[in-house]
Amino acid sequence: MPQTVQVAVDRATIHFDKLYTYRLPQDRSLEVHHGSMVLVPFGRANKPRMGVVLGVDQEAPDQAQKELLDAAPGEARLTPDLLNLVLWLKEETFCTYYEAVKAVIPYGAQYRPTLEEGKPRLQCGTRLPTQLVYRLTGQLPEKPKPGPKQLAAVKLLEEGPLSAKALEEKGISREVANNLWKKGVLEREEVSEVPDLYTNIPYRPEEISLTAEQKEVSQGLAQLLDRKPHAALLYGVTGSGKTLVFLSLIQQTLALGRKVLVMVPEIGLTPQMILRLKSQFGSRVAVQHSALNHTERLAQWRMIQQGGADIVVGTRSAVFAPLDDIGLIIIDEEQEHTYHSESSPRFAARDVAKFRAAQQGSLLLFASATPSVDTFYWAKEGRYSLFRLTQRYGGHPLPQVEMVDMRQELAAGNAGEISLELAQQLQENLNQGHQSILLLNRRGYRTLATCSHCREVIKCHSCSVPMVYHKDKNQLVCHYCGSVISPAPRECPSCGGELRYTGFGTQRVEEELARLLPKARILRMDQDTTGKKNAHETMFSRFSAGEYDIMVGTQMVAKGLDFPKVTLVGVLGIDNLLFGQSYRAYENVFSLVTQVVGRGGRADLPGRALIQTSVPDHPVLNLAARQDYEAFYEPEAELRRRFLYPPFCSLCTMGFVGEKEDRVRDAAQSFASILGQLAGQNPEIPLRILRPAPMSIAMLKDQYRYRLIIKCRNGKKFRELLRQALAEYDTRKLSGWASVSIDFYSDND
Ligand code: ADP
Ligand code: ZN
After folding, report:
1. Between 156 and 290, the higher pLDDT residue
2. CA nearest to 476, candidates 428, 518, 444, 498
3. pTM for this structure?
């Protein structure tokens, strides 16, 4: 047994996150290990605080050391695998130890402080429901003469154990069962009742028969299932059957007795994947994503931890699933920015997966029709093995794509958001009983309220962003902090001039569609309509069942979905994404357009797509229309090389956030000069510090924000330099002016 432990505590800052030594109570009442969750007295006031044990020591404790208050039970401790992840996250992403702990275990599995008889104690966040289960262990005594209910109960239990509830349903009350238990005829046990998800999916494995092209790819990939770490890219056009290749590879991995992690970029795509995996591979499929409630999430997590799952499916956080012996990790639609976490720890699932694959000897498979420029670059350089699927399954052609020039549309007198051409095609599709998808990546009704007199735009009080008009509630809403102005004003608050509402979101398009096509059944999918639990799943399955003709929505309708009856896709309001600030703006537009266009014509009916734009000659749109990724990639990679952007360097984006603008700016500038000086002393570490500037959203929730971008080679040496600079920043007490965040994955938008 250890005598003292080193603990990392909750609520530390990146400037100040070290290990504190505590001694164990002498009565040996606590069982503590590496990775145990503990409660410690902290600070001058000795307030109880959560912590995690990251070091244990046999040396005799010093009486001056503080004593642990409580420790969670042994089975709740972080496994060596998860502990490794915590240390790795801390080193790679500049988070605190405890932030990393909170990332790797779900909320429901985290212990929290409570008071028990006045003493600070730990308690687990979520308790899984339990039920009593009775089992026959003895014989009914002949005297006193058993009653009919008792006889019936014994008869039922001869078939096997039953829960109290099951017995009650058969007319045996709890009293009868407990009486038999007291007599020693039955044993009873409290068993955790794991809420089983997706039980309605039948197990119907099908023979996976691959096309020649798919088979070749699958065989090539299967060679990489040799217990050594590998990374590969499966680049296949939309509808080429990447999912079928996954299924075949998963089957081969399971046959080796190893486990599989499948990552999808959005919650909306999990049901479809779960359906396929459960019907193909049965019940040992677990799920991890944020739309589960705490109990479900915890139950699924426990199932994985206890070895009850062979396959885990989920979104970003599933990358921390406590799976051992992972043979295969699939990251589908690998280019999606949702795989990056935007709060601490600011990690990329891709890199976590790489680390796990290296540790466990797994094949890491990236898949996409539009890989990120980074991934494709590394595939071409040979760092990842590259596999291609060039044809759609069944020989279906890619959709025919046309540009609609919205400037001409306006000149011709159509001031609506839907062009005449699109309206006509929608009508035709409706007549034929086919389905259509419209993409518009903005929710709300009107996106801008401008004063016609003083030209002022109505912005949020707490954030430097325009407020969006939501017609259903007649409110202006800030999409960043959620604050509202209700009812929506008609006059400018500054000068009293008349407000003009412009720009359009999904609500307005839905309304316009209803006017143009009164017979069409329209489904709108955006953050406002999908808030309820399982909303995505329900909506997609109703659309799939033909209950709607047109689905209009934000990026959530653009990717990964497979609806055979969709033959028409419309892309609206894409232009302002083209002119975004991010160095990835083109990559993102290319991917979004290719993906959504690829939703059409996936089965026997041919597909077509219309892109509404004011820049119909724009090369990125035209390449996306042709679905010609490689023609897009070459010049794009060349630009990145020339102007030094990833993959030719790493971007370290530092955020400086505080209440006073001038102080935030000064803090950012001071940091830049501290780092500049250190860099001068270490000329062997290549880096380029750009000038600090306000972020594109300069104020968020009443906090001013500056950023500092460093182009660097992200390695140990650079991170060490950054740590030194942070220490100096802290020594100069600048952290009181602006707190710092570090992100190696930010899009800088
Ligand atoms: P991708 O993910 O590459 O866009 P999918 O895996 O969704 O494509 O496949 C597109 C459609 O073609 C799906 O309906 C899928 O079931 C079907 N499909 C692809 N390959 C096969 C195959 N080998 N056998 C049967 N159906 C297939
Ligand atoms: Zn706001």
Report:
1. 156
2. 444
3. 0.90
